[in-house]
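Q: Got one fold?
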Amino acid sequence: MTAERTKPEFDAPAGPAPEELEIHDIILGEGTEAKPGATVTIHYAGVDYDSGEEFDSSWNRGEAAQFPLSMLIKGWQEGIPGMKVGGRRRLTIPPELAYGPAGSGHFLGGKTLIFIIDLIDTV
């Protein structure tokens, strides 16, 4: 089951960073589908598109995270709905759907981000 999966490995992206959200299902789930505005329980890891450097991972903390989608960056609000429990999805998120342009005050501002997300539960 999803909670027992190991932390994902990231393949180095090829070419320039995309200008639009890219959604790629790595494993299709068979459980309940996440809806817009749902609260999700997930495991995730995120890396910078250009450097490949990891900036966050729930696996490193040893526990899944739970969030209302409405509280997350736009790339997650648009990229997680439609996912089913048990699934693993890669989101490649341009700056305007992540933390905004460089100089926005967030250390990830101006960066394209790649997340791999395992959906454990949704309500």
Remarks:
- Strands lie at 22-27, 39-48, 54-57, 65-68, 88-93, 113-122.
- The longest strand covers residues 39-48.
